[in-house]
Structures are given as structure tokens and as C-alpha cells.
Amino acid sequence: MTYLITGGTGFIGAYVARDLLARGDKVVTYDALPQEEWLCRIVPDDSRNRLTTVTGNILDLARLLETAQQHDVGSIIHLAYLLAPESNQSPTMAIRVNCEGTVNVFNTARLLEIRRVIWTSSAGVFGPPARYQEPVLPNDAAHYPIYLYGACKSLNETVATHYFNTFGLDSIGLRVTFVYGPSIRRGGGANLVKSLIDRPALGIPSLVPFGDDTMNLQHVEETARMIVMASDAPPTATRVFNTTGEVTTVRDAVARVRELLPEAPITAEPGYYMGGGVIPRYDTSLLEAEVGFTPAYDLKEGLRRSINAVRHRHDLPPI
């Protein structure tokens, strides 16, 4: 099958492309500003003959339609969004890219009768703990987003349901949490990830921000595996699923890095990511039952994999 991945040269997209190519699928990445260096870093050389990179804006419906039709796309994986801090800084672009762009993807799939759209929602649709009685949020918990990014994703969930009910468009949304891995390049979490992984991996002194915050940390390779599994799943009764990584404080994550790198000059500083306050625990029983996904490894293993990826790029031995 040929997959169209919007945002396919981005942080998560590159790993999704790698996994699809590894099993023999064809992949077309679609980005306004393709990051081909990052994609080539993740995708092995022997898979690239089945990889096509297209430059295109998610707001250009005609370009999306042309690309999907030209390459006989069977499924779309939609990962092209304006992230949380950038969304707060530019509300107009947030609404256009995150909401209008998603509608364009749904319309492309509908008009071309494409089998399925997998798209990423966000745990940011939920609100602060004070809004909820449950310590672990069920899949159908009410949405009280406190940031524009989460509000856009909440609207997209309604739109996905509308397209399913009205047009029969099969889509699966995944409420991803805070995705980490080696060398995230952009967004408000970039400094956290570089401070937690990249700098310690190279022995560079590191001060990790947001040490007081409790986060749900999801390794990028696990996120990619979940997306691929969702693309393969039979039709689901649920339109959007809670997902989870490991819930931990940033200080505890720093302690895990010290276990892996005892000599690492790494310290957590006080503070909260975007002010903190978002509930981090989610019931993922529907995801497990309908898609079959459960995390394969814990935070320490995810950090080890990430650190080793950084060290490999710099010709350092693994830990």
C-alpha cells in the first residue's frame, strides 16, 4: 500500500515512514518545508527507493488531492500541525493549520475514497485535575482544554465524528501525550528533550527545565508503532483513543538518565511545562481492545534507546 504522511519528515513522521518502509509499503511524505536531512537520518538507505518527498502546504487542498491521486494513496497519516506554544502565539495560524488543514485531509480522503485516515489528537483536549473526579480519565471524559492547541484538537475530534456519520469516512484519532526521543527539533518541548537526552548523551552539562511537573512521556518509536497498528486495525467502534506512555515527574526522569549515565552532569530545575496543571493519566483499555496496542517498554528503556541514537550519530559507544 502507498501511505501519504502529512508532516512526514517531522519528528514522529520520520519514524512512521521508517516503520512502513521496513515492511515493504510505499510512503509519500508531504510537508511545507521538508526536513529531508532528518528523514534520511531515520530511514535506512535501502528503503528510500520506495520513499517520495513532496513539498506542499496542508492548506492547499488542490495540491493534497493531486498528490494523493498521482501516487494512488491507500491511507493517509496526518501529522502536520502547529504545536502548542506556537499555537498560543499565533491563534489565526493555529486554527487554519490545525483545523482547516485537518478538514482538507478528511476531504481528500472522502473525495478520493481513501481507505482510512489516521490522525493525531492530543491529551491536551483534557483540562486540569480540578475539572475531574476520576484520577484516570476514561476515553469519553469531557474536554476542558486550557490551551488553544488542545481546543483545536477537540474541534477536530468533533469534525472526525461528523465525517464518519455523514460521509462514512473511516478515521482513527490518537490522543498522543508528550512524545520524546533523540533530537526533537522544534516546539516548546525541544529544550526539555535536548536537555534530558541529547546533552547528557554527549557529556555536555545540562539543566533540565520543568522539574516539578508530572508528565506522561511517550517514546517516539512507541508512538510510531501505535500509529502503524492503528492503520492496520479493523474498523473500530471508537473514533478517537486515549493513549499513554509512562507517567513520571521530570525529576524522576532525570534520575533515570543518571542511572544510565552515572557521570552525566545533569540537574533538574524547578518549574512547569506551559504552566502545568493538565491531568496526565488516561484509561487506554479501548485502545488495547480495538487496536491491540500496549506499550512495549518503559521510560528507562526509551531513554536508553534515545541516548544510544544520539551517541551513535557521534560515533560514541552505546550504553
Description:
The chain has 319 residues and is of the alpha/beta class. It is 42% helix and 17% strand. It is built from eleven helices and twelve strands. It has a seven-stranded parallel β-sheet, with helices on both faces. Strands 7-9-11 form a three-stranded mixed β-sheet. A two-stranded parallel sheet has the order 8-12. Helix 3 (61-70) runs parallel beside helix 5, helix 7 (190-201) crosses helix 11 (299-313) and helix 9 packs across helix 11. The longest helix is centred in the first third of the chain and has 21 residues, at 91-111. The protein is globular and about 55 Å long. 46% of the residues are buried.
Topology at a glance:
Elements: E1 2-6, H1 11-22, E2 26-31, H2 36-42, E3 51-55, H3 61-70, E4 75-78, H4 84-89, H5 91-111, E5 116-122, H6 148-167, E6 171-176, E7 178-180, H7 190-201, E8 206-208, E9 214-219, H8 220-232, E10 240-242, E11 246-249, H9 250-260, E12 266-268, H10 285-290, H11 299-313
